[in-house]
Amino acid sequence: MAKWIKRGLIALFCLSLLGAVAAWWMLRGSLPRLDGELALPGLSAPATIQRDALGVVTVDAANQTDAMRILGYVHGQERYFEMDLLRRTAAGELSALFGARALDYDRRHRVHRLRSRVETQLASFAGDKAALLQAYADGINAGVAGLSRKPWPYLLLGAEPEPWKRSDSALVGYAMYFDLQDASNARDLAYWRMRPHLPPALYALITHNGSRWDAPLFGAPFGDAELPGADQVDLRKLPAPASGGVLQLPFPDEIGSNNFAVAGSLTADRRAIVADDMHLGLRAPNLWFRARLRYADPRVSDGRVDVSGFTLPGLPALVVGSNSHVAWAFTNSYGDWADWSLEPGCAGAATAATCAGLRVHEELIEVKGAPPSKLTVRETAWGPLLHDNPDGSALALRWAAHLPGSLNMGLADLSRARSVDDAMRLARDVAMPVQNLVLGDRQGKIAWRLLGPIPERDDACSTATLVENDLVAGKRRSAACPPWSLQTEDAPQLVAPPSGRLWTANTRTLDGHEYERIGDGNYVLGARAGQIRDGLFAKQRFNERDLLAIQLDDRALFLQRWWKLLQDQAARVDKAGNASPALATLAEAARRWEGRAVPGSASYRIVRNWRRAVHTRIANGLTAPVRAELGDGFVMPELKQLEGVVWPLLTQRPDHLLPRSERSWDELLEHSADDVLKEFAVSPGPDAAARLARQRWGEHNTASICHPLASALPGFAKRALCMPFDELPGDSAMPRVQRPDFGASERMVVSPGHEADGIIHMPGGQSGHPLSPFWGAGHDDWVRGRPTPFLPGPARHTLTVKPLQ
Is 520 helix (H, G, I), strand (E, B) or coil? Predict the structure, then answer.
């Protein structure tokens, strides 16, 4: 019997080994070809594809069209599955790959009908670059066809990659709209539903839109809120839920991107330097793909383009980078890019007779392994109807992404800019999700501009209005606000600032009329922008490493006062003889304050979590009247500027603004401390502080940067599709934004004309194939913040590309 068991185990081992070898062999078949020669249809002249040790690609081609055809070939071989996910995300077509589990996600996106809109507006998107888009699409399809086997994710999914079309590049652009803007306009909807149930002074307090931490480019900080008196608001006399219920968080993390620049007046050799780190969701492979593109172009003065930086697989353009004359960088701009309109008679089964301009579209969502799912989309001239109201009206959403002119290929033209002024002129025609564009040129000039389509609202419309065409007693509040269109030419800008410094970090940049025109798209707290600004003003001379140091700054300056409050509160309560075990435990565990979000710090994690707990209790107290009215229908809006309300409350401690669930402000702070202990499963006791002090920040902030398919695999296989699970420094309210799966999707510090001195980082590596030598290559430099060269290194692989005869 033992002999047969032994033979069985050996046979099982051999079968497993054969299976592993077969899987390895199948996977290897989708690795790109790196060396030798190939013939590429449509190419006009011979070209080369070089890769350095990190897999960074250098394309040398005869012209821009050939360069984009080759870039498409490389993108198709290295990143086709990720490109496919982007186009399917925008179009609401993921269910065709993943089955019914993706249906809810697809429905939320399909209601915007972006594939239909793209097909209708394709000529506008392509403009004078239709041939460029076609060459790029042909290159992608040739790249996929050139693999020995289809890209490996399709083997796991049992699916076939569908050919790439020109319109798919537009869908990739619209996928970024979903990533960078709120397609549900959720905050305005939440505010609109809240406002009728709150006294005006309380509503104004909750929605206060700034703090002392503001760091705008124009104007002064809005400052902390001025608290209303008891004659205006008294929470003790207003309704509150019968029971506290589950507390709702009042804000997400203050996340976003950074870009900044210094002019030539602040550098030793008169060079402008541009820094950029775009913070996005992180995965393996990374969203971006590094490339250097060199080709002849008769439209530029010296006849040749040599541009390096980051491409987005799916688009034939360099997104951010430098061309030796101009460097450019982006952060997302949080303006008001969407509006609701109240549409009478449009709820439910409305008809054109009751709902003006009603159009009905039937969308079929293909579902893997199941029949197609039908989605009915109702639209008016304003946009899709997304919410029905009890009075028979409905809310229609007008979002910039819906409209003609929301996206084009103008970004590709920045690669041929020869100065800041030239780039600013080209920027007037670029349509993409609105960004803070920061520029620097080799003459030392810097500039900032909002880049992208801005709504042209009628005088009857206002960015301060939550729902246009709202009703009071069944009548319009004022003159009707008509549907608006988009324009890219007239945008706020700042050229050659006297200080020689520019900075943006997803915070408010504007003031006055321009702020009213652009609106508040839920800007993040200004602490991060202020820390960058102060870093730029701390010195009078800069080089590339100085700007990298600002990008890597993980000092917790914003939380310093919260640490002091925790220590002072615990000491004050203890001195008064009041029992406050939770506060005492937190204060003791956090007594050693490193002042940085470093993996080994327990005090940072404790203070951070206590602040969040305090915010949560205060936000739930301030919104108690509307929670009592709406019950389960209440949704807490994102209150990203709540710090400007919470701190005055904690400083002044007015009884009339104390949440009704608390007997005193001391009790609120103690209960918040208790919330933290419960979160860490630590009970008050003699050794509680010691146990809490072991809760290091790094244990929470551990990298989880994985391939999209990793979660579907068993543990041992999942690890092969993830980057190392490193403990990471950084957090949200500081320049080094870093969470387990969110953070700097790239870092770039570069001076045009001095690219050889530039610095670059990228997480996740170049290749989307786990067997590639470039899977994860360079990732550890990103984790450690080690300076790595902006330009590609010496070629390790060269592929010669010739026209197909």
Answer: coil
